[in-house]
Amino acid sequence: MTEPRTDFAGRVALVTGSSRGIGLAIAAELLDRGAAVAITSRKAEPLNEAAKELVEAHAGGAGDRVLAVAGNAGADEDRAEVVRQTMDRFGRLDVLVNNTGINPTFGFLPDADLNAARKIFDTNVVGALGFVQLAWKAWQAEHGGSIVNIASVAGLRSSGVLGIYGASKAALIRLTEELAWQLGPKVRVNAVAPAVVKTKFAEALYTGREDEASAAYPAKRLGTPEDVARLVAFLASDAADWITGETVRVDGGLLATGSLG
């Protein structure tokens, strides 16, 4: 057996979009490392199930270190309520992970639904900035901290039918750089750019053709939520103290091949 990890002991993390998939894996990783974790997503029922799963996976009594607050990341009042409850419960907010991302449309850009495009940018970019502003004002401006934004390899290279989603993630990558410059040295801000990770969100990209999809990767497999979670925890930790403004790919080597598969 390995010794329990405690590098986040006494710290509080807020992970958005965390009822399942990558967000839930990040919350679990930070909880494993000693953090108290606030999780949030739009629908209360699956979020509460995720909170129950986190507590049950930590038999040592993690119930007092898990908070679930339902809310729409694209709504100003919901973001404010999530941060307010986090501060009320834990009294601090050291780590913010902006994981929420939506993609309700894909296809030929000249035919794109502009209302859907607005919704994508409002949630994936403006919503992330909104959480940053709240975390900064509630705790980090005075006490410091770290922020990790979940971007995508689609934000680093043209992605065809995922064009609007990719453009939103490119904006998030640029936002990460601007925030790192403006919030330093108090707060470090980095981004993670995954390729296809085996989650419900990405099912359409690999279901029924996983062997074919993974063949394009030098690692010869698709990603898992845990692959992303471990990198996020590193970037949020003191071990990454001199890393800020960076976007780190976690893509099984996909972009090294010169394409998105």
Would you give an account of this structure?
- This is 3-oxoacyl-ACP reductase.
- InterPro entries: NAD(P)-bd_dom_sf, Sc_DH/Rdtase_CS, SDR_fam.
- It holds the Pfam family adh_short_C2.
- One of its GO terms (molecular function) is oxidoreductase activity.
- It is a single chain.
- The protein has 261 residues and is an alpha/beta fold.
- It has a single domain, classed as Rossmann fold (3-Layer(aba) Sandwich).
- The chain is 41% helix and 13% strand.
- A seven-stranded parallel sheet has the order 3-2-1-4-5-6-7, with helices on both faces.
- Strand 1, helix 1 and strand 2 form a beta-alpha-beta unit.
- Helix 4 runs parallel beside helix 5.
- It starts with 11 loop residues before the first strand and ends in an 11-residue tail after the last strand.
- The model has no long low-confidence stretch (mean pLDDT 93).
